Amino acid sequence: MSFTGGLDEAAKHDVLTTIVVFGASGDLAKKKTFPALFHLYQQGLLPKRTRIIGYARTQMDRTQFASRVTSFFKENVESPDVRGFLSVCAYVSGKYDVDEDFQRLRSEIDTNEQEMGRRADGQEERVHIYYLALP
User: Fold this and answer.
1) Which contiguous run of DSSP H or E holds residue 50?
2) How far apart are CA 62 and CA 55, in angstroms?
3) Which residues contact 55 (CB under 8 A, 6 or more apart)?
4) Can you give the pTM of this predicted structure?
């Protein structure tokens, strides 16, 4: 596996890819992590079947999450690229010490992978990347 956690190979071979950003409501995520992921998306460097899931304790709806994610983007938030990026993003609110919250996160991952066309037999290669944007 490469230093990129398999993301480069996943992009070449269109592997189902889920990126989970822990601490998604914080400054690091909004100032650095999401803008960097957006630029990878914009340049076509993410696999076509990629979902990005933000996870944090903060309660937010989809609109609030989208506003936070795009708050440091230099591009117009109404641009097709930004709208496309937001369409691959989701948010799950939960605590870091509650099993049920992590089960909800797992359920969100599974649901997203089904929507991206994951085979029902589970025999398809998948890449999960967990990024800790936490203090």
Assistant:
1) strand 50-56
2) 12
3) 20, 21, 22, 23, 24, 91, 92, 93, 94, 105
4) 0.88
Where do we find the tokens 């799950």?
Answer: 92
Q: How far apart are CA 45 and CA 88, in angstroms?
A: 14
Edge-first strand order for the sheet with 126-132 is 89-93, 50-56, 16-22, 126-132
With contact defined as beta carbons under 8 Å apart, do 102 and 80 qualify? no
Distance of CA 133 to the CA centre of its chain: 13
Residue whose pair of structure tokens reads 């998948």 in the numeric block: 126
Q: How buried is residue 33: exposed, middle or buried, by Cβ count under 10 Å (0-12/13-18/19+)?
A: buried
For residue range 72-125, what is the model confidence (pLDDT) as tens digits? 999 898 999 999 999 999 999 999 999 999 999 999 999 998 888 776 666 678
